[in-house]
Amino acid sequence: MEQKKSTHKGVSIKDLPLLFCGVLLASIIISTVLIYIYDQGFRISVRDVFLLYHYGIRGSRSWQMADKDHLKACEGPGVSEAKPSTKYDLTLFGPYTFEPTFRNPCWYQVQGGNHSLAPHLRCLPFFYLAGFPKCGTTDLYFRLTQHQHIVRTPRKEPHWITRGRYDNPDLQKYTSFFAKALKAGVRLMIHGWLVNQIQTLWLCVYLYVYVCVCWSRKGDGSASTFWDNNSWYLLPGNENCSEPRVINADYIRHLNPNVKVVVILRNPADRLYSDYCYFTTNPTKAEFHTKVVEQIRQLRECFVSNSLRQCVYNSSINKHCRIHVGLYHIYIEDWLKRFSRDQIHVLRLEDLSANVTQEVLKIYQFLGLDSPTEEAREAMLHGLPKNKGKKRTATGAMLRETKEILLSFYLPFNKRLAWVLNDNRYLWS
Description:
By secondary structure, the chain is of the alpha/beta class. It has helices spanning 16-39, 46-54, 137-144, 171-196, 202-215, 248-255, 268-279, 285-305, 308-312, 328-336, 349-354, 356-366, 374-382, 390-395, 400-421, and strands at 106-109, 120-123, 127-131, 150-151, 217-220, 260-265, 344-348. The strands form two sheets. The protein has a five-stranded parallel beta sheet. The chain has a two-stranded antiparallel sheet with strand order 1-2. The chain is globular and about 90 Å long.
């Protein structure tokens, strides 16, 4: 008997482009569907957790909310006629149960108490690049976000904790900002991965989405977080007080007691001049000198009859130039009363400029991150400095007389700072 000839034909070379396009199109469709489902705020199933655990994505971190401080009202007259309002009290929010699968502090929030609707993802920053202005925070933030596990937010400085919440006190605006940043970062990583890895299976894409989500961290780069408490008299607990007892750090500790804080400092005299040139329309050396002399005079008059904190936190006498921002030890000591020393990493701009790789790797280690990839390290090392003051370059160096006045004024405060940090580099001698 004659055997029937098989009519089945193998894949010819001509069919390869069509097959290639089919695989690519299927991958894009599956990824799009997964991202859409993720945007609806779905929870990770038991099967997903098993897969993540199998691939080493374990949620080992846990956050516990700090207890609220019960403060007695101050007895003296306050600095403002405005009364504290509970709408600015962030201790009324939470406590939140953070999802253990995420490395970043995130949780799912039910929409308006309606459990039939998909919950929304809400996130807080994993770390704060909290200060100080004109100390290189923009350049440092750019370098830190080159790490493969840090997602860059749409805006480096939301300034919500220090300023934005007085216009819109709803915490949801702040937490949704970081949740959206996480999702946007995941989309970019998926797009880049698809471009480089065309031949893919849907399960690989599925797992990759979770790897991106679970390992990603976000940071708040607002340089005002550490020092700007200009509206402290509006915060409950500061009734009739002449200086603040409740500050930004109290609320950050309440929302996430295990948060990490990075603080970069600079010779305070140089910081002040850079600050003046940056925020002044037509800066001149002579005007800067006049402002410095007058501001120091007002501060020294205040020191005679008031506490150091009262003068530093009184915005009404710090109008000529922001000399008070350079009294770093005041702010650092305030934060160290609320956080342990191993939660606050302090560095100098001078050291970062001298050895970028060493200082940035120290911060990665402080944040508990893996070593950066070669690609991330290359981008971190060769990134150009950001937000560099062009007006200061055009204005030239400050007058020698002004520099000597500032160095003399800051010297005792720098000594205190060096003692607090146990590091004589902060004398800037």
